[in-house]
From TrEMBL:
Protein name per Swiss-Prot or TrEMBL: ferredoxin--NADP(+) reductase
Family in the record: Belongs to the ferredoxin--NADP reductase type 1 family.
Lineage summary: Bacteria, Pseudomonadati, Pseudomonadota, Betaproteobacteria, Burkholderiales
Recorded catalytic activity of this chain's protein: 2 reduced [2Fe-2S]-[ferredoxin] + NADP(+) + H(+) = 2 oxidized [2Fe-2S]-[ferredoxin] + NADPH
FAD-binding FR-type domain span: 4-110
Gene: fpr_2
Length: 265
């Protein structure tokens, strides 16, 4: 390997959420690769499907895995006409995937002061960064309450739903859930399918008309709530405008804010 900027890792598991559309990959992790929840890695593949060829195609993917996990996990949508994702979706355990040694990104919890509530709003595979945070006990220690809102089109796209609904059963997280039954409020939202007890609406519509606050049972108070946005550009543009009108803004010049945003493509 001539390029010291990356390491060669091995796929250990593939999970298909929606055939031909959504999948997760687990792979080995270089012991020197360290990251913060919310950061992303650049993954590489050779331009041609030739064993041991140098990687020349690179794409960014947020870590689903927590910093303390032995392996790395990534969640991906398959773009049929894309150069990278169909190739990655074809990988099987034992195949190679390359990882740059340096993590990237600033959608991290150190953007906020500890305390209060943390709202994690995501569309589609923007969920990835939040899973890393939710798997990390330090996140639960840092905030009094956490709300996760995941917007998709169809219910089958609600990847990781079972894991999220059972986080309270994890021995390392159970003490935080013991602080109160409302430690986590998980709200899955589908725009093209009705889910029990959840309006069939876009996240920004629920945010604009106040129903999101009602569903999360908490007022949108900029003095108490910190919000992260991760998803498609349309969601981010609309939500940022709505939140700015309510007093939410990113931090600046070393002053922590109450809003952090990352475009997820």
């Amino acid at each position: 390997m001539t390029d010291s900027k990356y390491t060669r890792q091995t796929v250990t598991d593939v999970r298909i959420w929606v055939p031909g559309k959504l999948l997760s990959l687990r792979l080995t992790r270089d012991p020197q690769f360290e990251f913060l929840p919310g950061q992303f890695a650049r993954l590489g593949l050779p331009a041609q499907a030739t064993p041991d060829a140098e990687p020349t195609l690179w794409r960014a993917y947020s870590m689903v895995s927590a910093p303390g996990e032995e392996g790395l996990e990534f969640y991906s949508i398959v773009v049929p006409e894309g150069e990278f994702s169909p190739r990655m979706a074809a990988l099987r355990p034992g195949d190679a995937l390359y990882v740059e040694k340096k993590p990237y990104g600033f959608l991290t919890l150190d953007r906020f002061e500890p305390g209060g509530s943390l709202w994690l709003l995501a569309s589609g595979t923007g969920l990835s960064a939040y899973l890393s945070m939710l798997r990390d006990p330090a996140t639960w220690q840092r905030f009094d309450r956490i709300a996760l809102v995941h917007g998709v089109r169809q219910a089958e796209e609600l990847a990781y739903r079972e894991e999220i609904e059972n986080l309270h059963l994890r021995p390392d997280l159970a003490p935080y859930f013991a602080q109160g039954p409302d430690k986590l409020r998980y709200l899955p939202v589908a725009t093209r399918q009705t889910l029990p007890g959840v309006p069939r609406e876009r996240l920004t519509t629920l945010l604009a008309d106040g129903r999101l606050e009602a569903l999360l049972d908490e007022p949108l108070d900029p003095a108490r709530v910190k919000i992260m946005l991760c998803g498609n550009p349309g969601l981010l543009a609309d939500a940022r405008k709505l939140l700015a009108e309510r007093g939410f803004a990113p931090g600046r010049r070393g002053i922590p804010g109450n809003l952090a945003v990352e475009n997820y493509w």
